[in-house]
Design a protein that fits this description.
Distance between the termini: 21 Å
Bound molecules: adenosine-5'-diphosphate, magnesium ion
Helix content: 25-40%
Radius of gyration: 18 Å
Number of helices: 7
Length: about 230
């Protein structure tokens, strides 16, 4: 599963906030790693170690102060804001701790939303949305609103939405952080299943037990990254 060219290549990534001012913070101090297609990798580290900063770079939400990032072979330094937004839409499926679903829309409408932005015709939207809900085991919940779903079901809707454009990278920031441990376990099993279907998963967490479920763990500490034993 994890052969071939890396889907994520990071070389010497640095991120400095408020550079050159008294408030300057060096959040990343030259971070290098590769993630190959089909890998399930956890990035772990304590609060303030730079995990969110790194996630923003991996997710093409921000650009590094120095270093090089190739996202599925594309050098982000070559892109303007619009190009970065397009790359994000094509390459990254985001999953967050707080689900980020729109409460007045059905599960299916939430899942189809990225296709609406991409200009896909309604009949195809619906077909693909239902298929994505099927992939996460929620065929029978398409018309339910988020408030009518459990936390675990809401997170599965969010994962279906993240998958709808078939992005090569699924990027999850503390995806089990708002769930009880049994429900969190179901979500981790779903990630494992998606991985065996060929998806690349990058999971960011402060919880060593969650990280242990990945194939490989990268540990952030004070803006530096090390492969964990
Ligand atoms: P984590 O997600 O591991 O808690 P962060 O990436 O959020 O860590 O933060 C790393 C460091 O960068 C911290 O010292 C934090 O205070 C600082 N930081 C994060 N975002 C900003 C920002 N927008 N402006 C200034 N400093 C920031
Ligand atoms: Mg964070």
């Amino acid at each position: 599963m994890s052969s071939g060219t890396p889907v994520i290549q990071a070389e010497g990534l640095r991120k400095v906030y408020s550079e050159g001012t008294p408030a300057e913070v060096v959040a990343l101090r030259g971070v290098s790693f590769d993630i190959r297609h089909g890998e399930f990798v956890a990035i772990i580290g304590p609060s303030g170690s730079g995990k969110s900063t790194l996630m923003n770079l991996i997710g093409c939400l921000d650009t590094p102060s120095a270093g090089r990032y190739l996202c599925d072979g594309v050098d982000v330094a070559s892109l303007d804001a619009a190009g970065l937004a397009r790359l994000r839409l094509e390459k990254i499926g985001f999953v967050f701790q707080g689900f980020h679903l729109l409460s007045r829309m059905s599960a299916l409408d939430n899942v189809m939303l990225p296709l609406t932005y991409a200009g896909v015709p309604p009949s195809e939207r619906r077909e693909r949305g239902l298929r994505a809900l099927h992939e996460v085991g929620l065929d029978d919940r398409a018309s339910h609103r988020p408030t009518e779903l459990s936390g675990g079901q809401q997170q599965r809707v969010a994962i279906a939405r993240a998958l709808i454009n078939h992005p090569p990278i699924l990027l999850a920031d503390e995806p089990t952080g708002a769930l009880d441990s049994r429900t969190g376990e179901e979500i981790l099993k779903l990630f494992k299943r998606l991985q065996s279907g060929g998806h690349t998963i990058v999971l960011i967490t402060h919880d060593p037990e969650v990280a242990a479920r990945a194939d490989r763990v990268l540990a952030m500490h004070d803006g530096e990254l090390k492969e964990a034993a």
